[in-house]
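[Solved] Which block belongs to which protein?

Original post:
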Amino acid sequence: MSNREADGAGSERPPEDGMPEALGEESRRLTREQLYTMAATASINFSSMICYSILGPFFPSEAEKKGASNTFVGLIFGCFALVNFLTSLILGNYLTHIGAKFMFVSGMFVSGCVTILFGMLDKVPSGPMFIGLCFLVRAMDAVGFAAAMTASFSILAKAFPNNIATVLGSLEIFTGLGLVLGPPLGGFLYQSFGYEVPFITLGCVVLVLVPVNMCILPKYDSIPSKDSFWKLILLPKVLLLCLTIFSLSACLGFLDPTMSLFILKKFKLPAGYVGLVFLGLALSYSLSSPLLGLISDKRPNLRKWLLVSGGLMTALCFFMLGPAPVLHIESQLWMFVLVLVLIGFSLGMSAIPVFPEILHCAYENGFEEGLSLLGLVSGLFNAMWSLGAFAGPTLGGFLNEKLGFEWASAIQGGWALLTGLATGVFYITEATRRSSSSSLHNPSGNNEERTHLMGSDT
């Protein structure tokens, strides 16, 4: 490995005997540039998630009034993830050509404008025209979201090369906050002022943040690289980590169309209390993410075991969420909420270490360090997450309709079980191979050391 590659990998692989002093100083004293970068990223995390989540409480009923069936409503939700998947791959590949800051700011601008446009759709005639414009506007929103988030991940990794997991974990607080506040805020504005106001209000907030981020976000220059997505994704370890991202996102997305219906039917809760049940998952994920990110950066050797144990724990929790009929356990509200809290924590265990682990693998395999690689990794991460966000609700809704929530959640947990086991087997095999390789070199080293000592004695 060349010196450049070793330096790049070193940013992801601290020495075994502890954290370097420079890293400790950096983590204690953030520069103004780093603070501005965190503020800009926090704004996109919060605003994008709150705009994404306001649809849940009222859009399905409004769409039904406009002649959209439940199938089309599900497809309108699902097309966001599908377009996000395709766009993330393209934008990640061309990040250095477009410019990270321009991509970030333009993505926010598009997202804000499209959110306002979504609020105008109730003026559109019912039927195919309404459905078609919903698809078009939702797809445009996905393009803006993909641009902003792909650039965001890349800029963060560039600004915080030594503690990216800690920073990503800390900023997940704003992601969770947006997901938590979106449904109740959207429902309140809808009930109080009608369909248009929630979208216009939040769209204007996003547009106000655009000039702010243009001023505070640093500009990072970079040189385009010859490395490609195919070279990155065909690495066995990266491919396995992509499956991990997909399975986690699919498990989380499964809950969107199924969990509220199960809660209303099983526990007979009023509709207003359903959002409070969702808080268990969102809060546990948001609050545990900074700690998990800190552990991932301080102890990089533990990342692999966080990934494995997080996947297995997620599988167990989804098996218990119903619970699965084979267990013959009667579902109770307190147990359901407890399992959701554990799911939030286990998702964080697997999701937070993935990004630095992919970077670590890329450096090990000779990828050029720089913003070009960060664009590839962030685009790949967002693409795999979006693909899971499309597959999870689609498959979950089908399984829920055919088998019921109890069996559907248990089957959905099988994704996490398979990836957790596969990741564990891979890491054990990798450790065994490295151990056997080092043992082949040790005897000669020991003989040389013994000869040297004998010579010094004489």
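(Second protein starts here: sequence line, then its structure tokens.)
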Amino acid sequence: MAYLRVSGTKVVDQNGKEVILRGAGLGGWMNMENFISGYPGCEFQIRAALADVVGKEKSELFFDKFLEYFFTDADAAFFKSLGLNCIRLPFNYRHFEDDMNPRVLKPEGFKHLDRVIELCAKHGIYTILDLHTAPGGQNTDWHSDAGTHIAKLWEHKDFQDRVVWLWEELAKHYASNTWIAGYNPLNEPTDPYHTRVVELYDRLYQAIRKIDPHHALFLDGNTFASDFSHFGDVHKRWDNVAYSIHDYSVFGFPASPEPYQGTEEQRRRIRRSYEKKRQWMDERGLCVWNGEWGPVYARKEYEGARTEEINEERYRVLQDQLSIYNQDRLSWSIWLYKDIGFQGMVYVSRDTPYMKLFKDFLEKKHRLALDAWGADDSQVRHVYQPLIDLIKREVKPEHQDLYPAPVWKLSDRVGRLARNILLSEFFVREWAEHFRGKSEQELDEIAKSFHFDHCLHREGLNKILTDNATLVAQEK
């Protein structure tokens, strides 16, 4: 078996035949996220808190078992049965080095990543390796696991040096693996100056290519994979590179400006947003990969009788996006494969030990809108509105839109800082205290809640994905 590679606007095999990659991201696994598995704040915070509560040994046992159960052979077999052929594997740099011991490789970091790559290969599924969390934080959000809204990666050369070093180590380890479709060196960068991200990509390209000349690179645009406007002609120095957009539609979230009916104007808005993200690549005849996209879904415990109605609306958004992608023969990776019931193709049953243990806590998290992703802040908006009003009153209008505006509006910024960072950190210990006094066997059972056998399937979503897995327009 030979490597896949990028040729012009396409991903192709060794014979030059187009390979359209369609699948999902394994979010919440080797890069945990609060809305995916139900904790508050950031992964580094809950790992430290759990170690304080149950001890280092038990904490490490729980997280290792969590990683083991989260994706097994049963998951790979199911994924393949849907007709999908590629999984994006997000991971946190902390699996491979410690901040207090930088540039010293932790070989155990490869344990689960190797295992899942091999499971996927066994079932004929390609993988794309995604550095979702980089030293210092590459973006302003929780999923860069930095605990702040300042992306320090762009302000410290040593952080950037460590990213280059890590990709050199990863390239050494995976250079000969042809089931890996490619490397996604940095998830959703937010460089306020728009130029340092291009410079870092150039460093990464040169460093990886010295070790691994074969694997394709999938490079995210700046500002959450939406903006290539400052990339200029840098692509002329790079070969075997695809460019990644993240094409989330506002209509797929609780903050949608209006119910989605699939009107001509709404579909035009979806297409306009998508085309703007890929404009730079289209003008230059470059390959586009949609590395993340997809709606979130209503849950009966929160949305009640409107749950099915809301979800049918979200499926319409999904289908209308796919109609565009099929016309363009686009490779994509929907977000995401597994979670606790908000967005995943499969999700943990409410009858599992984990979900029973955290039932009340999850309800509190939802009411307080502690997570940013798809947040419904209706029950606490009155608390934060006075702060928003104060800023609008006292700050000149031309100074209110701070980067990453316009992706972050003023209300988003206040929500991130006041709820998702400040308020959330007060609940980290409460999350960890749920594990106090648990035996190793009990910790194992809690982690096992995430096993495929204990998950439900989002049938409506999965049917749409299967129906569209290989559905593309004829080549032009």
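Accepted answer:
You had them paired correctly. Confirming on the second one: DSSP finds 18 helices and 13 strands in the chain.
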